[in-house]
Specification:
The chain is of the alpha/beta class. The chain has helices at 65-69, 85-91, 139-153, 155-164, 182-197, 217-235, 261-275, 291-298, 348-353, 369-378, 400-412, 458-473, 476-491, and strands at residues 21-25, 31-35, 39-43, 121-128, 172-178, 202-208, 240-244, 308-314, 358-359, 381-389, 417-423, 427-428, 446-456. The strands form 4 sheets. Strands 8, 9, 10, 11, 12 and 13 form a 6-stranded mixed sheet that branches. It has a 3-stranded parallel sheet with strand order 5-6-7. The protein has a two-stranded antiparallel sheet with strand order 1-2. Helix 3 packs across helix 5 (182-197) and helix 12 (458-473) packs antiparallel against helix 13.
């Protein structure tokens, strides 16, 4: 929504809003523009969000039930969750609503800025948020819940199909869910059904993982097993699987309360939203990368569908993180130039391996100068896609024919496959965004972001770690299949490369 232009004086947006939003009409005939999304949550999980929202208010939908059945009804209602002050101010049309803070944010809806279509809001009443009597924690709980609901309602036919039929040339479906609790099991069954129904459609799964250090040992183990089950079940069906976790080390320009999910999600959104920005790029403004293009670049060997997300916040007047100066001076070997420059440089492997400030995949090395050098040396990059946004420079033109030649030469030289996308639109620091950035971005409205997705040998090491835990701790009935599946995934990130025993020191 932050990319919308509401007046004729603003520069036209480079983003195609119709990819993530749909136009419609409310009950009173007013035009509406709402996200193309489905949101499943447990009972109580939507907080003060109203299902019908401000655009589709239906009043008292059950008010005439007594007259319809000619009976006297006795209504029993649970106390409604009050709206946050931020939400109230938005509904009342205040131009400067009170900024959310850690104390006022209790649910994700407390900082939501958009109206949702009623079809987007789906509450699952079988489980209640935060219940200690019937917690939604075990992976199998999610599987069983999906199977029950799908048997009763056919979830894809009821929920997905109406949205899909509205799309012209749907480029893909993105699924966001926790991978380390019961939502992982629910999502695995959902992805399986989606793959059966939309066989050739890009399916991207973003798997959220909570910091387990604050949990009891038994719950830590449960979450690790859940993560292993999600990885094994979903990565084989999805087009791309991207784990998401708050980095164990944060750069000096980030201040984060790890206990605040609002702050954690704000941090993750900078990398996630920036890396999917090329898929919403308007044709002709800059290089466009649909989800299928991104996954084709990342899955260079055909069996590497798990990618790592990294991100840096950079100075708008400078260049991408880890470059040799401003963007306008940093040479991209694919750019058209009259100078006789080689298409492949000797230090391309080093460039591909360079680590950005924040890694959102679990298990990254401790952030010391020595461990970073060890990590870059021991970690092999198979493919990388970079997205750079918000820099104060003129978009450079990429010659497609020259780029294709460069890509071919890289393959012949056994160098990592690399793609880079640029968009002039910076990341918007809205009034609902948490105060997690310090100077020079503190109090600002925009930030330039350098993000990357990559398939690397680090994925093999992490998957093997999960396999070792599963082999020791999971019940015999499930152990062999799960461990073997994880082993096959790990092998895909070793094929054709040998680290020569130079592993990163886990200490």
């Amino acid at each position: 929504e932050s990319y919308f232009s509401y007046d004729d004086t603003s520069a036209p947006s480079t983003i195609d809003h119709d990819i993530h939003f749909r136009s419609g009409q409310g009950p009173n005939g007013d035009d509406t523009y709402t996200p193309r999304t489905l949101i499943y949550d447990l009972k109580g999980g939507f907080g003060g969000l109203r299902k019908w929202g401000g655009l589709y208010d239906q009043g008292d939908a059950d008010g005439d039930m007594g007259n319809l059945w000619n009976v006297n009804l006795v209504r029993q209602e649970e106390p409604q969750i009050r709206q946050s002050e931020y939400q109230k101010a938005l509904d009342e049309g205040h131009e400067q609503p009170p900024k959310p803070n850690k104390q006022s944010v209790r649910y994700w809806s407390d900082f939501a800025r958009v109206f949702y279509h009623p079809r987007s809001i789906i509450q699952l009443n079988d489980y209640e948020l935060g219940s200690t009597i019937l917690p939604f924690e075990k992976w199998t709980n999610g599987e069983e819940l999906f199977e029950k609901l799908d048997k009763d309602h056919d979830l894809l036919d009821r929920d997905v199909r109406p949205w899909a039929e509205e799309c012209d040339q749907m480029q893909g479906i993105q699924i966001f869910a926790s991978a380390d609790d019961a939502w992982g099991g629910f999502a695995a069954k959902y992805v399986e059904s989606l793959r059966d129904e939309y066989g050739k459609t890009s399916l991207w799964f973003w798997g959220l993982e909570e910091d387990g250090d604050r949990l009891q040992r038994a719950k830590q183990f449960q979450r690790t097993v859940n993560t292993a089950q999600s990885l094994q079940a979903i990565s084989t069906l999805a087009s791309m699987y991207i784990p998401l976790a708050v980095p164990s080390f944060l750069p000096s320009y980030v201040r984060l309360d790890r206990a605040s999910q609002w702050q954690a999600m704000g941090l993750l959104s900078m990398g996630l939203e920036s890396m999917t920005l090329p898929s919403r790029q308007k044709p002709g403004n800059a290089k466009r990368g649909l989800l299928g293009d991104l996954e084709a670049a990342l899955n260079a060997n055909g069996n590497q569908k798990i990618a790592e997300l990294q991100c840096s916040v950079v100075d708008q007047s400078s260049g991408p993180a880890n470059s040799n100066g401003p963007w306008t001076e940093a040479r991209d070997n694919r750019m058209r130039s009259s100078d006789p420059q080689p298409l492949v440089y000797e230090d391309e492997v080093e460039k591909a391996n360079r680590k950005l400030d924040m890694s959102f995949s679990s298990g990254e090395p401790s952030q010391t100068a020595l461990s970073i050098r060890q990590w870059e040396k021991a970690n092999h990059v198979f493919a990388k896609v970079e997205s750079v946004r918000g820099l104060l420079q003129t978009t450079q033109i990429v010659d497609e024919e020259e780029e294709a030649v460069s890509r071919k030469r890289r393959r012949l030289a056994s160098l990592p496959s690399m793609e880079r996308y640029y968009n002039p639109s910076p990341y918007s620091l809205l009034d609902s965004f948490p105060d997690i950035l310090v100077e020079p971005w503190e109090g600002g409205e925009k930030a330039a972001i350098h993000g990357s997705l990559s398939t690397t040998s680090q994925i093999s090491k992490r998957t093997k770690g999960l396999q070792n835990i599963v082999s020791r701790m999971v019940d015999v009935a499930d152990r062999e299949g799960l461990a073997n599946g994880l082993g096959e995934i790990a092998e895909a990130y070793q094929e054709g490369w040998d680290s020569s025993g130079s592993d990163v020191d886990s200490d």
